[in-house]
Amino acid sequence: MIIPRTKRERALVLEILKQTVEGLGRALGPNIEVVLHDIDMPDNSVVAIENGTITGRSIGSAIISGPFDDVGLDELLSGRSRAAGETYTIVSGYKTQTRTGHELDSTSILFRDGQGKAYAALCINCDRSRLREMRRLIDDLIGGNIDESRTEDPDPEPSVDALIREIIQDGIRSTGKTVSSMSKEDKVDAVHHMNRRGLFLIRSSVDIAASSLAVSRFTIYNYLDELKKSVRA
Description:
The chain has two domains: 7-127, Beta-Lactamase (2-Layer Sandwich); 160-232, no CATH class. Helix content is 42%, strand content 18%. The protein contains seven helices and five strands, in the order H-E-E-H-E-E-E-H-H-H-H-H. Strand 4 and strand 5 form a beta hairpin. It starts with 6 loop residues before the first helix and ends with a helix.
């Protein structure tokens, strides 16, 4: 694996990976989404995608627009399992969920530069919901019942601003308290929840989160520093 050390070299690797995305999408079929992220552009990180109807994403979508419970994103944020000289990290065998409630089988490959920093992510999300629907239909037919359920189109992708506010509200709800009744620890927990969803990869999110939690933007950065220290401990 080539270890890119300059922006130009990273751009060349990304161009090769874009072609890989197209080839994999054609080979694997319509029930498997293949998506490439340029991590240096979190607001519109998706630079190549095949079968994006599975999650409702397209080229230019933000890194926070992906499925829920993304362990690959958590790996990117935490930096865990990064060995010296490691050129890539594979995170596989985890479940995610689309906004429409479909469970996905997901795998992410994080590509790293000479300093070990992740600069690209190639993600594969397999939607087996149609297979499960076919199995239920067959079971119903064998049992004498006909299920005339239909497959609904995915909801349109929310804007980046809508995603930011959704993640912030989810973080607040995760504490089970109103903002006015939160302790510092509650707010740190809320920020931890937001951070796991990749919120703070989007630069404008810090000010919005600070306003929503009734703290300053510097307080948010302090909370994030506390969380980083707790991971290292």
